[in-house]
C-alpha cells in the first residue's frame, strides 16, 4: 500500500504538478432516521489492518476507540463487526440526546459522517385559545406544531367525519386560518390537525359569538317546611356568552337596576333555597345579566295553608307522596327509605356538596332504595338532545326523564353504588340487568361510565360501554374518529367502538337502528322496548334482601 502511494506521488512530481493532500469524501452525509427507543446502526468501513478507529459524537464526545466503548455510552452502544473492515456503531434504544452528527475517524482523518435524526410525533408549540367574538368579526386562528418529519397542519370545521369537503384551509406549520365569526349567539368549532408519517395530534378551538342572556326555564319546588315558611328550591337554565350572572330577588315591585323598598336580593347562582311565608303571595324574580344585556323571569308563589304546602304554584308537580322529611337531608333514595319513607315517588335528596334536588325513588323493586335516573314510558319526552340538556337533566319525574349527568355523577361519587336496568317490550316480556359496581365521572372527564359485576336476564351489554365518555349529537366523545354514533344511533349515551345498547334512542321508531335497543332483547323484529328504567343505590348484600 505504501509503495502504491509513493508511486502515485512520484508520477505527479514527474509531471510537474503540485501535490494537494485530500480528505476522504463525506460531503454527502449518510442520514439515519430512528424513533425514540428503537435501535440505529451507523456504518463505517476502514480498510486498514493497523487502523485506530474512533467514533465521535460531534463536536467532541468520544464514543469508542477501536472495540472499546467509553463508559458513558457502554450501556446502549457497541461496536459491531461482521467483516474486518467494518466498524459499525450500534445504538440500542435511541434517546433524544443521540440526535445529531457522528463521525467515524481513522486517526484524525474523517472516514464517514452520519446524521442521526430522531423521528418525532407532532406536538403543539402554541395555538389559539377559545375565542369570544362579535357578530361577523374577522378572526385569525393559528396553530404552531413541531415534529420530524415536519408536520403538515390542516384545519377542519367540526363535523362527525372530516372529509375533503370539510377542509377550510391547509398548509405547513404555523399557517394561520382567517375566518369570519357567525351570527349572534352561535358557536363554531375548528380543529387543527398536525400530522406526519409518525402520527397526528389535534386541537379544538371554539369560536363563540357574544350573545345576550336568555332564560330558558325557571322553576321552584318546595323541599321542606320550617314553621310558617315553606323552603323553596329555585333554579334556572340560562344561555348567553359570556356566561350570565344569575341573581334572585323577592318583591312585587322589582325593577332592574333600582334599589326599592320591599325588594330584597336573595342570592346568586343557578340554584337557590329560600324561605317563603305560607301566609303571603310572593313574586320571585330571576335576573340574568352579562355585558350584552339582561333577561328576567318571574315565579309567582301563591299562599297556601301549611297543611297543603306541597302544592307550590311553580310549574313543577308537588312531591308525589305523603311522607315529609322535615329537618333531614337524605343523600339518596336509600337514605329516604331508611328515614321511614317507603312509598315510591318524588323526593328531595342532598348528595354531598349540593343544596339538594328532586329525584324519583323506587322503593318497591328488589328491596327498594333505588334512585331512578332514566325512565322511558310512552315517548312523550324527546331524548334526542344536546350536551347541555343531558348535563342538567330534562323531562318529568312523574313520567319520562333523564335526571342529569351532573346529578348522576354527584350521587354515584358518594360511595360504592350498584346499577339496575329494567326493560319491558311490547309483548309484556320483562328483563333486568344488575351491576355490582356503577359510577359516572365528572364533567371534566365527560361523565365517563364505569360498570362491573354483571348479573341478570338480559345481556351484559354495558360492558362494551364501560370506560367510555358520554356523547351527544353536539359533542362526539366516542373515540372513533370515522363515526359519530350519537348522530347515527340518536340520543345521548356512552357510545364507543362497540355498541350493544342505547336506552336513550328514539321511542317506537320504525328504523331499528334509531330506536331504543338492548342487543339480545330487541333482536326480534316483531317487538321492541317500550318501558326502560335505570336506577342506582348503594351496594347491598343481596343475601339480606
Main pleated sheet: 9 strands, antiparallel
Bin the helical content: under 10%
Low-confidence stretches: 1-27, 305-318
| Total domain count | 4
Q: Can you count the helices? A: 5
Please state the CA-atom Rg, rounded to the nearest Å: 35 Å
Silhouette: elongated
Distance between the termini: 98 Å
Q: Name the structural class.
A: mainly beta
The CATH superfamily of the largest domain appears as Gamma Fibrinogen, chain A, domain 1
Name given to the CATH architecture of the largest domain:
Alpha-Beta Complex
Q: Work out the number of β strands.
A: 35
Quickly name the level 1 CATH class of the largest domain: Alpha Beta
The portion of residues forming beta strands comes to 35-45%
What is the CATH topology classification name of the largest domain? Gamma Fibrinogen, Chain A, domain 1
What value does the average pLDDT take? 79
What would you say this structure looks like, in words?
The chain is mainly beta and 545 residues long. It folds into four domains: 31-118, Immunoglobulin-like, CATH 2.60.40.10; 128-209, Immunoglobulin-like, CATH 2.60.40.10; 214-317, Sandwich (Immunoglobulin-like); 319-545, Gamma Fibrinogen, Chain A, domain 1 (Alpha-Beta Complex), CATH 3.90.215. Helix content is 7%, strand content 43%. The chain has helices at 2-14, 333-338, 387-392, 405-412, 485-489, and strands at residues 30-35, 40-42, 53-57, 61-65, 68-69, 77-80, 88-91, 100-106, 109-127, 131-133, 138-141, 143-148, 152-157, 167-172, 177-180, 187-195, 200-209, 211-226, 229-241, 245-250, 264-268, 271-277, 282-290, 293-301, 345-349, 357-362, 370-376, 394-395, 401-402, 417-425, 430-440, 449-456, 501-502, 517-518, 529-538. The strands form eight sheets. Strands 25, 26, 27, 28, 29, 30, 31, 32 and 35 form a nine-stranded antiparallel β-sheet that branches. Strands 1, 3, 4, 5, 8, 9 and 12 form a seven-stranded mixed β-sheet that branches. The longest helix is centred in the N-terminal third of the chain and has 13 residues, at 2-14.
Amino acid at each position: 500500500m505504501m509503495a502504491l502511494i509513493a508511486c502515485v506521488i512520484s508520477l505527479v512530481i514527474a509531471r510537474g504538478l503540485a501535490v494537494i493532500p485530500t480528505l476522504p469524501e463525506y460531503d454527502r452525509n449518510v442520514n439515519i432516521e430512528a424513533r425514540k427507543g428503537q435501535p440505529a446502526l451507523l456504518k463505517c468501513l476502514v480498510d486498514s489492518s493497523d487502523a485506530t478507529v474512533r467514533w465521535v459524537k460531534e463536536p467532541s464526545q468520544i464514543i469508542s476507540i477501536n472495540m472499546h466503548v467509553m463508559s458513558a455510552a457502554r450501556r446502549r452502544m457497541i461496536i459491531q463487526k461482521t467483516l474486518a473492515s467494518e466498524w459499525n456503531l450500534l445504538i440500542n434504544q435511541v434517546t433524544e440526546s443521540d440526535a445529531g452528527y457522528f463521525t467515524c475517524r481513522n486517526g484524525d482523518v474523517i472516514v464517514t459522517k452520519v446524521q442521526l435524526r430522531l423521528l418525532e410525533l407532532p406536538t403543539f408549540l402554541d395555538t389559539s385559545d377559545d375565542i369570544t367574538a362579535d357578530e361577523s368579526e374577522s378572526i385569525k386562528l393559528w396553530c404552531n406544531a413541531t415534529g420530524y418529519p415536519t408536520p403538515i397542519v390542516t384545519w377542519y370545521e367540526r363535523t362527525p367525519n372530516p372529509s375533503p369537503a370539510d377542509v377550510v384551509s391547509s398548509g405547513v406549520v404555523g399557517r394561520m386560518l382567517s375566518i369570519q365569526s357567525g351570527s349572534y349567539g352561535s358557536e363554531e368549532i375548528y380543529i387543527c390537525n398536525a400530522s406526519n408519517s409518525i402520527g397526528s395530534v389535534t386541537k379544538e378551538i371554539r369560536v363563540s359569538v357574544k350573545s345576550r342572556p336568555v332564560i330558558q326555564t325557571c322553576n321552584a319546588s318546595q323541599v321542606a317546611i320550617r314553621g310558617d315558611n315553606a323552603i323553596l328550591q329555585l333554579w334556572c337554565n340560562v344561555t348567553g356568552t359570556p356566561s350570565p350572572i344569575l341573581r334572585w330577588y323577592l318583591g312585587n315591585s322589582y325593577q332592574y337596576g333600582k334599589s326599592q323598598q320591599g325588594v330584597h336580593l336573595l342570592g346568586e347562582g343557578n340554584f337557590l333555597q329560600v324561605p317563603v311565608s305560607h301566609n303571603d303571595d310572593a313574586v320571585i324574580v330571576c335576573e340574568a345579566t352579562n355585558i350584552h344585556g339582561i333577561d328576567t323571569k318571574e315565579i309567582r308563589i301563591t299562599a297556601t295553608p301549611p297543611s297543603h304546602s306541597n302544592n307550590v304554584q311553580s310549574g313543577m308537580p308537588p312531591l308525589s307522596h305523603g311522607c315529609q322529611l322535615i329537618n333531614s337531608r337524605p343523600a339518596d333514595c336509600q337514605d329516604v327509605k331508611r328515614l321511614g319513607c317507603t312509598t315510591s315517588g318524588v323526593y328531595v335528596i342532598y348528595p354531598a356538596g349540593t343544596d339538594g334536588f328532586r329525584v324519583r325513588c323506587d322503593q318497591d323493586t328488589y328491596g327498594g332504595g333505588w334512585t331512578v335516573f332514566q325512565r322511558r314510558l310512552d315517548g312523550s319526552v324527546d331524548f334526542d338532545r344536546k350536551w347541555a340538556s343531558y348535563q342538567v337533566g330534562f323531562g318529568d319525574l312523574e313520567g319520562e326523564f333523564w335526571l342529569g349527568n351532573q346529578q348522576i355523577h354527584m350521587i354515584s361519587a358518594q360511595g360504592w353504588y350498584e346499577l339496575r336496568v329494567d326493560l319491558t317490550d311490547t309483548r309484556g316480556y320483562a328483563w333486568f340487568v344488575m351491576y355490582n359496581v356503577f359510577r359516572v365521572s365528572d364533567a371534566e372527564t365527560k361523565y365517563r361510565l364505569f360498570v362491573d359485576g354483571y348479573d341478570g336476564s338480559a345481556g351484559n351489554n354495558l360492558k362494551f360501554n364501560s370506560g367510555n365518555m358520554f356523547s351527544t349529537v353536539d359533542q362526539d366523545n366516542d373515540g372513533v374518529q370515522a363515526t359519530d354514533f350519537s348522530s347515527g344511533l340518536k340520543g345521548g349515551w356512552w357510545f364507543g367502538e362497540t355498541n350493544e345498547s342505547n336506552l336513550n334512542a328514539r321511542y317506537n321508531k320504525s328504523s331499528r337502528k334509531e330506536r331504543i335497543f338492548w342487543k339480545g332483547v330487541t333482536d326480534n323484529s316483531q317487538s321492541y322496548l317500550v318501558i326502560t328504567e335505570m336506577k342506582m343505590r348503594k351496594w347491598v348484600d343481596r343475601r339480606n334482601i
